Amino acid sequence: MQRYDHLSSVVKVFLLDRDDITVKELREHLRSMAEQFLTDSDPQGYWNGVDVDLIGDTQAQLREVVATRHLTIEQHKHVAEALSLLDKVKDKSRGDASGLLEFIACDGNDEYSDAAVENLEVSQARSPAESKREPLTLSHLASLYLAEHAVQLGEATLRGTTSVYKKLAEATGSLDMRTHTRADLVQLREVLAEDRAKSTVNGMLAKLSTLLSWARLNGHIDNDYSQKLKFTKGAESQRKAFSPEQVQSLVDGARGRPIASLVALAAITGARLGELMQLTAEDIQTEDDTGIVCIDINDEGEGKSLKNKYSKRKVPLTDGAYGFDLKSFLGDLPESGRVFANLTRFVASKAFKKLQEETEGCNADGLVFHSLRHSMATALRSASVSLETSQGILGHSSQSITFDLYGRDGSEGLKTLAEGLKKALGV
User: Fold this and answer.
1) Which residue, 87, 222, 248, 425, is the most exposed by fewest CB within 10 angstroms?
2) How far apart are CA 281 and CA 339, in angstroms?
């Protein structure tokens, strides 16, 4: 009885006990909550004394409500938004109020009626009203799915599933899952495989398939294209490298496109796509002692991650390699923030695929963005650059992988790395 009463109070706090309440009223209630948390130094009010340290418990109780009680579609959406709001409250308690401010700003600009929402839910055609809806991102789909299934999952399973969905959401960005295509999912698979083993990618695709199947059955999307998406047995064929001539053609073909600098940096550093995408203006550095300009690949900052601890490194930029103009590149950098703020990994990978298709001789099987990294490894080996220097450039760690495949991590000075790159790139 005590447990039932406790859930009942959470139901009342979030107005889930009122079947007659409108979507607009539910949104206004959440907005009022957000304002309360922003203006109160000690978040209470709606929780009658429960402080911010217990927000996680409140989220767990909301998920239990989803799993054990009958809710309408609108109420399910409301709970998903409430869970998102509570995450932003946690951020505020750590000194970051930007999420709550964005929540209020978005909510305040969201003008709609109950009738309009209902029409959008049942409409199967792409009407003008439907086209104006916000994209149904994979991130939002995942939050809805987890809100319904979290209580049924063990702690370790929930943690692993959440982690996979976060990575999938980062890869797909703002892709609208209502209108996604099979080609989008195939491209996603290639993006994931850039720096992961194909067996790992298959595991991620299995969770994606579960999510999309659930989303289709629950009316969130019309089509599920995730069947037979996994790499087949024996697909672990060795990735190919571009020849120097192909790399030059790609760098030349990319000029004038949004991915021009991205392709050039990959060609002259051998860095992974994910490593380049998370670079900030602060990561483009000029070393005081040597005057060498380099990229600082690190995991310091929001949203950054590395494949492993050995991936953290500095790689010199070689002026003139494949026509790279260092002065122009530095002049085009933003004052702060991400260097490639207008791109996501998914969009960048699609754009590179299009570049390959439009560049003669560069679209053979096994050639992808990651092939630029293999090209660098091949160039280092062909130029007889030392193992240790190659390690420092590529940031590879495994002692079981031979230099014939990649090279290894090392700690030689930037001057030695710069000389090794010039030798490999023929500058």
Assistant:
1) 222
2) 6
Torsions phi, psi for 268 (to 5 deg): -100, -5
- Is 138-218 in CATH node 1.10.3470? no
Q: How many helices (H) and strands (E) does the chain have?
A: 19, 3
**C-alpha to C-alpha distance for 111 and 307, rounded to whole angstroms:** 43
List for the chain the helix, strand, coil content (%; round to 5): 55, 5, 40
Using alpha carbons only, what angle is made at residue 239 by residues 235 and 240, rounded to the nearest 5 degrees?
140
Q: Are 358 and 253 in contact (CB under 8 A)?
A: yes
Q: Where are the beta strands (DSSP E) in 204-357?
A: 284-286, 293-297, 313-316
User: Would you say 222 and 181 are in contact if contact means Cβ atoms under 8 Å apart?
Assistant: no
Q: Are strands 293-297 and 313-316 parallel, antiparallel or unpaired?
A: antiparallel
Q: Say how many residues make up the chain.
A: 427
Is the Cβ–Cβ distance between 339 and 284 less than 8 Å?
A: yes
**β-bridge partners, 266:** none
Amino acid at site 333: L
In this structure, which amino acid lies at residue 129?
Answer: A
Classify domain 244-425 at the CATH topology level.
Answer: hpI Integrase; Chain A (1.10.443)
SS3 385: coil
pLDDT tens sequence for the chain (427 residues): 334 445 676 777 788 877 777 878 888 888 888 887 777 654 443 443 334 446 766 777 788 788 777 888 888 888 888 888 888 887 777 677 788 887 777 654 443 333 333 333 333 344 444 445 678 999 999 999 998 888 888 888 888 899 999 999 988 888 899 999 998 898 899 888 877 888 889 999 999 999 999 999 999 999 999 998 998 865 545 568 999 999 999 999 999 999 999 999 999 999 999 999 999 999 999 988 889 999 999 988 887 888 777 789 999 999 999 999 999 999 999 999 999 988 888 889 889 999 999 999 998 888 889 999 999 999 999 999 998 889 889 986 534 343 334 433 333 478 999 999 999 999 8
* Strands across the sheet containing 293-297: 284-286, 293-297, 313-316
Backbone φ, ψ for residue 37 (5° rounding): -70, -30
Closest CA to 271 of 249, 296, 252: 296
* Gyration radius from the chain CA atoms: 25
**In terms of Cα–Cα distance, which of 319, 281, 317, 276 is closest to 297?**
276
CA–CA distance from 219 to each of 117, 213, 222 (Å)? Answer: 14, 10, 7
Angle at 319 between CA 240 and CA 294, to 5 degrees: 80
Domain assignments of the chain as residue spans, ordered by start: 7-105, 138-218, 244-425
